[in-house]
Automatic annotation (TrEMBL):
<dbReference type="InterPro" id="IPR023405">
    <property type="entry name" value="Topo_IA_core_domain"/>
</dbReference>
<protein>
    <submittedName>
        <fullName>Uncharacterized protein</fullName>
    </submittedName>
</protein>
Length: 73
């Protein structure tokens, strides 16, 4: 069975192939690695982090003071 590893960018896929596969061959649109590994890439971000209020409406406003402001010297 082949394991497909998807990276966000081509260079990231190549770095993973170099680290995980003793020998690999660059093809059009993917990298064929040894050990049944195949690497490919997208053209940008694959996931996006939600803002706190998207996960919980109570988290929209920060209610804790951490004892520091940007005005402190």
């Amino acid at each position: 069975m082949t394991t497909l590893i998807i990276a966000e960018k081509r260079e990231a896929a190549k770095s993973m192939a170099q680290a995980l596969s003793p020998q690999f061959t660059e093809k059009t649109g993917y990298i064929q690695g040894s050990n049944n590994l195949m690497f490919t890439w997208a053209q940008g971000h694959l996931v996006e982090i939600k803002s706190p209020e998207e996960m919980n409406k109570e988290w929209k406003e920060w209610k804790e003071w951490l004892g520091y402001t940007s005005d402190d010297s």
